[in-house]
C-alpha cells in the first residue's frame, strides 16, 4: 500500500511512477528506484509481549547524471508532484557535483532469468493475532524449561521497481519473516534465529526448543583458561564470519582500492581446499534477491573455490573500470559504497553437528558470536565474544557449560583449519551456511558470565 493514503499499490502503479519520473528528468542519464512495503513487528521480553507495531513506507531514490557528474536524492512520497520534486533535486545536485573521472555509464538492460518464488500471501497477511499466537507457542516452550523468552517476530512485504533511461525495467514482490530469541534460565542462556520468505516454514516450537533447551543446559557455567581449542561453530557464527568477509574484501571496489584480502591473491590458495564460498541471489535455499539496486539481474559469483581466491562481485561502476559487466551486486544509493555480496553460501559438507561433537576429544561448542569487530582487515583478524550457549566438549561429549570467552582470530586462518562441514544449510540473513568444526581456534580472554 502507498504510505501516503493507504491505496493498494501494484506493479502497474510503480511502473507508471517510474515512467513519469524518467520522462520528467532532463539529465543525460537517470535511474529511478521505488520501494513500497509494510513491516510488522512483535517484541517480547520476560515471556510477555510488550510491543506490537506496523509501518508502511515508500521510498523513491533518484540518480541523475550529466556527463560524469552524479546527483542523488530520495523522497518518501509517491504523489506525482513530490516524485517530480525528488527528480529535480537529484538533477540540481548533479549539476553542482565534481566530475567522477572513473564513471562510464549506468548499466543497460539484460535478459532476466526466471527467479524462484519470492512472495507468499501467508506472510504478507500474517496478522498481529497470528504473531501473538506464535509468540505464545514460544512462551509455552520456555515455561517447560523454567526459562523466560525475549526476542521478536517480524513479518512483511515489499514491492521494488527499478528503471533507468537506458532501458532497465525490473520489478519484484518479496515477503520475509524473521524470528529471533534469547532464552534465560537462571544463569543459562540460549539463542535461536529463523528467517524465511514463507512464514509457514518457520517451526516456532522447534526454534523455541533449541533456545530453551540450550539455556537450561548452560546453567551455572564454569571458567576455563583461554587458549587454542577445537571448536564447533553453529551457523549463527558462520554467517557472522562470512558477513565480515563480504565487508572486508568480496567487493570489486575494495580490490581496486587495495584494501581487500583478495587483492593480489587471485588464483592462489588462501584457505582450506574444502572451502567454497559463492553468492547466488537466485538460489532458493537462501533469501532470494533477483536483481540489485541498479536493476541488474544477479549472477552467481564463486568468490572462493576449493580454497582458491577466484573473483569478487561487481556493480556497473567497478565493472566498467575493468572493462567487465556488472554481476548484479550494486547496493543502490549513490553507488559510491561499492558492490556487496549479500546472498552468500558456504558450500555444505557431509557432517552433522552430532558427528562433529563425537569426533572432538577436547574442544568447545559455540552457539554464536557477539560484538565482533575488525582488528586487521588485510589479515582478516577479528575479535569478539561467544554468547548464549558455550560448552566444553570432552571425549566426544558435551560435558559442561563454560563462561563466555573472547576470541581473536584470522578468518582465513580459521577457514584453513576447517576439519568438518555440516550437510544442513541454515538461511541467516546475508548468508546461508552450515555448521563447521575448526581446529585450533584462538581464544584470548574470558568474561564474567
Strand content: 35-45%
Radius of gyration: 24 Å
Shape: globular
What percentage of residues falls in helices of 4 or more residues?
Answer: 10-25%
- SSE class: alpha+beta
Question: Can you walk through the features of this model?
Answer:
The structure is a single chain. With 449 residues, the chain is of the alpha+beta class. It folds into 2 domains: 11-201, 2-Layer Sandwich (PmbA/TldD fold), CATH 3.30.2290; 221-449, no CATH class. Helix content is 23%, strand content 37%. The chain contains 10 helices and 19 strands. It has helices at residues 11-24, 80-95, 121-124, 128-144, 204-217, 235-249, 252-256, 316-321, 353-358, 411-415, and strands at residues 29-45, 48-66, 69-75, 148-164, 169-185, 188-196, 228-233, 277-279, 301-305, 308-309, 344-346, 362-376, 381-394, 397-401, 405-410, 418-421, 426-427, 431-433, 436-446. The chain has a 6-stranded antiparallel beta sheet. It is globular, with a radius of gyration of 24 Å. The two termini are 46 Å apart. Residues 1-6 have low confidence and may be disordered.
List the helices and strands and how they pair.
Layout: H1 11-24, E1 29-45, E2 48-66, E3 69-75, H2 80-95, H3 121-124, H4 128-144, E4 148-164, E5 169-185, E6 188-196, H5 204-217, E7 228-233, H6 235-249, H7 252-256, E8 277-279, E9 301-305, E10 308-309, H8 316-321, E11 344-346, H9 353-358, E12 362-376, E13 381-394, E14 397-401, E15 405-410, H10 411-415, E16 418-421, E17 426-427, E18 431-433, E19 436-446
Parallel strand pairs: 7-12, 11-18
Antiparallel strand pairs: 1-2, 1-4, 2-3, 4-5, 5-6, 7-19, 8-9, 8-11, 9-10, 12-13, 13-14, 13-15, 15-19, 16-19, 17-18
